[in-house]
Amino acid sequence: MQTEEQRQLLGAFVRARREGLRPDDPGRRRRTPGLRREELADRAGISVTWLSWIEQGRTVRASAEALARLAGALRLTRVERAYLFELAGRHDPANPFAASSGDAPASIGALVAGLPYPAYGLDPAWTVCTWNAAARRLFVGLLDGRGGHRNLLRYVFTEDDARRLIPDWEARACRLLAEFRTDYSRNLADPRARAIVAWLREESGLFRRTWDAQAVAEREGGLRRFDHPEDGPLSFRQHTLLAAERPDFKLVALLPDPPP
Length: 260
What we know:
alpha+beta; 434 Repressor (Amino-terminal Domain); Beta-Lactamase; 12 helices; elongated
């Protein structure tokens, strides 16, 4: 949900970008700089009233598709587009791997922060929404900013760091996808999850074959082994909990095996 500050920042940002655009008839004398609201609304295929409310910082719950048209009409750069969607509290349909716009549920955030062992939260699209320092160290290339995303499925199926980290990589990847498919069946209307599946089907042969095999599994705990590039062989017992206030979010904790 947007805060008052986010609405004000979004309004100021859209207005500044609108006023920075050149009109279609730059030779005519104009009272205002850049495009008029009517002109931008026409370019974006949105209503003038809706655009006015955004610039005024009023509560407007726009669709991701409408925001995408507005971003295109404003000719935003990739960074500016991401900023617009972040302030609007929406996922960019052009970037399904963007981090969730909603914060992790308070219960998951508190537990992750309080655990001394690797722990993280997953949003409905299985993007890591919160994590602790131990998880950042364990999952090389996922939470340190190097990969440019924090989606667990993309990491496991397409990143070389994951292949090196997970000894039984193919078996674990297939099991992970079977578990995700169970969640996916409850979330079929989510365009972000659908876009992630479509992207991975194109980018990973293993993902495509496993997805087409229709395997489904419940999220399970058990032994997890890793070959860490600095810490060497590591073993953990995985535990998964759902947030009472948001059961589509989950907490994953890895406790050392054997216990210290």
